[in-house]
Input
Amino acid sequence: MALLNVSVVSADQEVWSGEARQLVAKTLIGEIGILAGHEPVLAILDTGEVRITLENGTVVKASAEDGFLSVEHDTVTVVARAAELVHTDTATH
Output
């Protein structure tokens, strides 16, 4: 399965980066889900949660506000004025 290269950054630091199989974020027009092979997109973020699902099923959650999400060539960049890790749910297999 192809993976995404994900980076979540705030104005002053990188919050999280790594490979993932899926990312879901809240935009001004609703939630958007990104999988490998997604068409290029640029979306304005709404304040909310960013959920990153890793290859092993672990879900990394971050809060983000005032920013944008960019997707191109399986690279997803979330840039927010303020962002921080909230929680990580470990997969149970």
